[in-house]
Amino acid sequence: MFNHVSEIVEASKKENKPISQLIIEQETKNSGLSEQEVWNKMKYNLSTMQAAVKRGQEGNGVFSKTGLTGGEAVKIKNYRKKGHTLSGDTIMQAVQNAIATNEVNASMGIICATPTAGSSGTLPGVLFMLQKRMNLTEEQMIRFLFSAGGFGMIIANNAEIAGATGGCQAEVGSASAMGAAAAVEIAGGTADQSAQALSIAISNLLGLVCDPIAGLVEVPCVKRNAIGAGNALIAADMALAGCTSVIPADECIEAMKEVGHGLPESLRETGLGGLAGTPTGQSIKAKIFGRNVK
Questions:
Q1: pTM attached to this predicted model
Q2: What's the number of domains the chain is made of?
Q3: Which residue range forms the structural domain that includes residue 168?
Q4: Is residue 200 domain-resident?
């Protein structure tokens, strides 16, 4: 079992294997399943992600029962067709995929929690953009998920991935770091560069609070996944360019844990502070649940 990023980087160098392969072998050993069975499980996760991205972008899109979210992935899709995006089509395609996935989640559709439902759009946002940009094969996409999952496991075991315990940095921040590290591997980077990308991605979103309006995984959750996807790609590019994080990956994870535990209760998924505590946020909560709900 890999307990730290430094361990998995060292193993990759020593065994001359990509991180994705090390995680496949670890999962095979721990689960007692064959490598093919482990592969097929991840393949199913991939197909679940693909279906959610597709559903969120079809027709007029999908909408939540509250009416707070929906249809914006389609708006971005139509906006991209004009060819005048300010941040470039690559980033906006990732954003479109991310928002589509989270809108499906908010509408009670089926998604793959990566690592949570609230952060389920970040990895698909990155992955399916890379699929088109780099013409990835199914095998490469599955390996992306194994690599991302390996780093996510380390984050979960050493910090947390739940907004209720660590804020949104633990959800979207973790997903963004996972996506950044996996993107580096798929692009041909080294294990050390994956670790650098993870560090940069975590550092960029350190302290991000969890303040869902009315306690629902809709606002600002959906759009934060767009930021998570963009941050992952930027962090991956910086690492591939040779940029490094002054603070090592394992220390960044520990810092995320400490910051998360230091956040007040009102900023950890309770729907009390931050955006949820604004007059508009409280008004929306009262409209949905009634004014006597606290």
A1: 0.97
A2: 1
A3: 5-289
A4: yes
Please write the tens of the pLDDT for every residue from 189-200.
Answer: 999 999 999 999
Amino acid identity at 34: S
Three-class DSSP category at 118: coil
Residue 294 within a domain: no
Residue 110 inside a domain? The answer is: yes
Cα 210 to Cα 33, 172, 194: the distances in Å are 37, 10, 26
What 129-133 contacts at long range (C-beta under 8 Å, 24+ apart), as own/partner pairs, is 129/90, 129/93, 129/94, 129/97, 129/229, 129/233, 130/183, 130/186, 132/93, 133/90, 133/93
* 226, part of any domain: yes
Rounded distance between C-alpha atoms, residue 166 and residue 269, angstroms: 9
Mind listing the pLDDT tens digit for each residue in 235-286? 999 999 999 999 999 999 999 999 999 999 999 999 999 999 999 999 999 9
The enclosing domain of 198 has a CATH number of: 1.10.4100
